[in-house]
Automatic annotation (TrEMBL):
Belongs to the LysR transcriptional regulatory family. This is LysR substrate-binding domain-containing protein. The keyword Calcium does not apply. Keywords: DNA-binding, Transcription, Transcription regulation. Residues 1-58 form the HTH lysR-type domain. It comes from Terrihabitans rhizophilus. PANTHER family: HTH-TYPE TRANSCRIPTIONAL REGULATOR, LYSR FAMILY TRANSCRIPTIONAL REGULATOR. Coiled coil: none annotated. InterPro entries: LysR_HTH_N (IPR000847), LysR_subst-bd (IPR005119), WH-like_DNA-bd_sf (IPR036388), WH_DNA-bd_sf (IPR036390).
Length: 304
């Protein structure tokens, strides 16, 4: 077998299909398919189950994927470590976060250290942030999901309290705070399940034995804001993430005792890569609540 065949297999396994893999590594699909087919023929093993939409790894394919993952991660790490000082002023970092509020300042600070830095930022719910990392679709993440997974390296960033927000014409705009019992039977607009903000809010509801009224689910926090501003219900946000929106009135919930904690995270095997390490150090520089030298290990199944 050749390294090209192994790389072709790894690309298809990572992308979940031949077409997507061919686009990502910029070769023709027939060439890619041919390399994978040759690998299967040489080994006498079926590595993929071909489906109408994409592929699924067989048991043998899963075992090989574990090997190629380590192989190409080691290759990438070696390449990074061997770059000269000029290249270390840049690099490309794939960031995934459950919001832009915390992640963009970290990237901006990192950009001061690495003026040639390029990056991509994907925003997803806390559950999907972890999935992106485990699927090798991101290098670092910012999330409120403390995932009990030994493959991940996590460090606490900061903590915040829960608050509600309502449209400016809501009856509560004259108030400066709420308590949990105020929320009984009220209509709400919330993120889909998988959002850690929603999960922490529901933990507070259960703690205070509060039941909500009708719930409208919206897939993005921006959508929640728009729906709340239009009067469809009350929205929920961490206090430090709310920002300013003249259409909305924010109300801290004084007895919401379960806090929302944000973490910076990456795959444990990638934490020593210079660019990833610099991201963690930039987070520590900005927020001061984490140490890039002392990892916080997940203590239990707190993932949303």
């Amino acid at each position: 077998m050749s390294i090209a065949q192994l790389r072709a297999f790894h690309s298809v396994a990572t992308a979940g299909g031949f077409s997507q893999a061919a686009r990502e590594i910029a070769i023709s699909q027939p060439t890619l398919s041919g390399q994978v087919r040759q690998l299967e023929q040489l080994s006498g093993t079926t590595l993929f189950e071909r489906r109408q939409r994409g592929v699924e790894l067989t048991a043998e394919g899963e075992a090989l994927f574990e090997v190629t993952r380590r192989l190409f991660e080691a290759e990438a790490e070696a390449r990074t470590l061997l770059k000269d000082d000029m290249n270390r002023l840049g690099g490309h970092l794939r960031v995934v976060a459950d919001g832009a509020f915390h992640s963009v300042p970290i990237i901006r600070h990192l950009n001061g250290k690495r003026p040639r830095l390029t990056f991509s930022l994907a925003v997803a719910n806390s559950e999907r942030v972890i999935a992106h990392l485990l699927e090798y679709r991101a290098d670092v993440g910012v999330t409120a999901c403390l995932a009990a997974d030994p493959r991940l390296h996590l460090e606490p960033l900061l903590e915040s309290r829960m608050g509600a927000f309502v449209s400016r014409d809501h009856q509560w705009t004259g108030r400066d705070h709420l308590v949990m019992k105020d929320l009984q039977d009220q209509p709400f607009v919330m993120r889909e399940r998988g959002s850690r903000t929603r999960a922490v809010f529901e933990e507070n509801l259960a703690q205070h034995d509060v039941g909500l009224g009708q719930i409208m689910e919206v897939s993005t926090q921006e959508g929640v804001r728009e729906a709340a501003a239009a009067g469809f219900g009350i929205g929920i946000s961490a206090d430090i993430e709310f920002g300013h929106d003249s259409r909305l009135h924010f109300l801290p919930i004084l007895d919401a005792d379960i806090l929302l904690i944000e973490y910076v995270t990456c795959l444990a095997e990638r934490r020593r890569l210079p660019l990833v390490r610099d991201f963690f150090e930039s987070a520590a520089d900005l927020y001061g609540s984490i140490s890039p030298r002392a990892a916080r290990s997940p203590a239990g199944p707190e993932a949303a």
